[in-house]
Design brief:
Number of helices: 7
Number of domains: 1
Shape: globular
CATH topology: Rossmann fold
Number of strands: 11
Strand order of the largest sheet: 6-7-5-4-8-9-11-10
Distance between the termini: 36 Å
């Protein structure tokens, strides 16, 4: 499918898929959305510990990069698994401006290292951040009691409804440790009910700019 780089409401870039009229991040602000959904309502719950994170939809690497920056500030040691079937291209990567928008140009090499690192292998990105990228379909995730936190950042149910089903969320439930958390920008009633059906306790929370609500699920 044809993809193009667009500028979102906060000045940060994202990738737009023309056929679906769908973006990798919110058109209202890619960086704002990432911080609101995944940091404020996910990562910030964890303090001074080793943390295992699964990202469903590694995509542009924005969530991973922000998590690295937050880990440096908070003292977290992060083991980060990013699952992505269709990696971004080198041309797309060069057009993204997250290091500039985050005022983190000193870590541009870290962002590039995340994308250039070998797939299916644990790579030490920094002293506080270990990355393992897995190139596969999200429905192929099959681990148990491994992750403290899941960033569920798949494309929306409007264009990929098969990724927002009870079957997929059962895999997420199995992958999460007791008291583990899953956060997502989504807020549809069908998504909330699918999460609840597999055992998650689900909260509706205020959404990022452009969205009224989002969901957080706890095992």
């Amino acid at each position: 499918m044809e993809r193009e780089i667009i500028t979102t409401g906060d000045g940060s870039k994202t990738i737009h898929i023309k056929e679906w009229n769908e973006q990798y991040h919110s058109k209202h602000g890619a960086v704002q959305e990432a911080y609101h959904v995944f940091v404020k309502h996910g990562l910030s719950l964890f303090h001074n510990r080793n943390l295992s994170i699964l990202e469903v939809g590694f995509g542009t690497g924005l969530n991973a990069f922000i998590t690295f920056l937050e880990a440096r500030k908070t003292g977290l040691k992060v083991s980060y698994t990013g699952v992505e079937l269709y990696p971004v291209t080198e041309i797309e990567l060069k057009a993204l401006n997250y290091d500039i928008e985050l005022k983190a140009e000193e870590f541009t090499d870290i962002f590039l290292k995340m994308h250039s690192s070998e797939w299916e292998k644990e790579v030490k990105i920094s002293d506080e951040f270990i990355l393992c990228k897995e190139q596969k379909d999200f429905k192929a995730i099959d681990v148990k009691n491994e992750y403290d936190l899941i960033y569920f950042d798949a494309f929306g149910a409007r264009v990929q409804p098969d990724l927002w089903t009870e079957a997929v969320f059962f895999k997420m439930y199995q992958a999460t440790v007791k008291d583990g958390v899953l956060v997502t920008y989504a807020a549809k009633g069908s998504v909330r009910r699918a999460m609840q059906a597999v055992g998650f306790t689900v909260e509706r929370l205020p959404g990022p700019p452009g969205k009224r609500e989002m969901l957080r699920a706890t095992k």
